[in-house]
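Q: My labmate handed me this sequence with no annotations at all. I'd like to see what the chain might look like in three dimensions before we decide whether it's worth expressing. Could you predict it?
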Amino acid sequence: MHYLATLVGREDAPGARPGTPEFEAEVVEYAAFEEREAAAVAGGAALFPSADALHIRRSAGQTLLTDGPYAEFAQVVDGLYLFTARDRAEAAEIASAIPLGDRGRTEVRQVVDLGD
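A: Here is what I predict for the chain of 116 residues:
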């Protein structure tokens, strides 16, 4: 079964902005997690802050594009992992090893198998 772990954290926390020394230090911790869980992790990525986002909506046959954050939240999705696990318990074990420190949380959801 596939699971998606969305990493939710504060955008104003040290290490949240790619390219900063704090971010680069955290990359080392995430690389160690990915190495330990290499058999399960299918992919992962950090995301730039929501101020850099592009929101796309369809309404009445029109495509609407909006720059920047859609809403102001204290915490936003700042990364993700796609991984495999036998069951929910193993998914929780793998996701619990993601090195978020004290600055965030992880939401884990099973991916629907659409039979591709």
